[in-house]
Amino acid sequence: MKTTDTQLTANILTFSQRYVEQYQEKLQHLPLVEHDEQWPSPCLQNKFDEKLMCWQPVEMQPALSFANLEDALDLVIHPSIVHYFTTIFSENIPASCSEGHLQLLFAWSEDDFARLQENLIGHVLMKQKLKQTVTLFFAVTDDDNIMLTVENESGEVWAERVGCKPHKKIADSLTDFIASLQPDIYIEPETD
Fold this sequence. Notes:
alpha+beta
């Protein structure tokens, strides 16, 4: 298990670095996010203009814990989802795979990590209420009704409609899935 966890961490770090490098290559600056003083993050770098800040993913040092989530749900969370959400702080990262376009979800800060855990608890409680297999989301797709999840028992990656059972297996593991991704550098068209 330790080798798989190490490989997943390496894949996340490599993918996020590739995203930043390709973004910089295309636009000659770090990725941008709207500046919000109420929503600080260790990802924020420098001011780009009056409204935007440059950002980049940063490794969590030390990694945060999922213990309170596991205690709240009385459930052991699959190690891959724990490693996924405790490797980096980051804005969502657009990516593409053979199935299409998606946004990888990450915690922006420690406060956002707490909010993320609350959302995961709500998702798991819904799955339990519907008597469905427990899954944990980690990405959203271009279709607002479909998210990507990790099946908690097996660690497999699935596509899943909100409130429904997973309907399409995407990868055998989160490690394999992250390794298959390409950064998606989409530039918003300028509007006046």
